[in-house]
Amino acid sequence: MAEHARFEKLVAEAKKSITEISPQDSATKSKGGEAVIVDVREKDEWDEEHTPDAIHLSRGTIELDIEDKVPDTNTMIICHCGGGGRGALAAESLQKMGYKNVLSMAGGFKAWKNAGLPTTK
To answer: In whole angstroms, what separates CA 19 from the centre of its chain?
Structure first.
């Protein structure tokens, strides 16, 4: 069995019930004030480099912290992690909490950087 096979299966299941968005569309929606980008990576990953307008809510505590940061369940939230897996799981979780407009950034932060989009430290 492949390494991380169970995690990959969980992610594949999550991706069936969520909507993915490209990094380019994420950047446009964030810049236009239409969406909040939520980086669900660990704090050390965030500290190293992140997308300019994102808020950081790590995967471990997002369910606990989201209501303080984004109280309106109609707000468009774009979750992302490093490569897409944790972001998808977080998006699915927020949907279960009643957030109606949650997306997951396809390919995560890696894809954002590969698209040549700006980052900050």
So the answer is: 11
Count of Cβ atoms closer than 10 Å to residue 91 Cβ: 29
Q: Exposure of 108 by Cβ count < 10 A (0-12 exposed, 13-18 middle, 19+ buried)?
A: buried
Contact 118, 49 (CB under 8 A): no
When pLDDT is averaged across residues 62-78 and rounded to a whole number, the result is 97
Backbone dihedral region for residue 118 (phi beyond 0: left; psi -120 to 50: alpha; all else: beta): beta
- Would you please indicate which residues are annotated as catalytic (active-site) residues? 81
* pTM: predicted TM-score of the whole model, two decimal places: 0.95
Q: Give me the count of residues in the chain.
A: 121
Scanning the structure block, which residue is given the tokens 């109606």? 100
| Contact residues for 32 (Cβ-Cβ < 8 A; gap 6+) | none
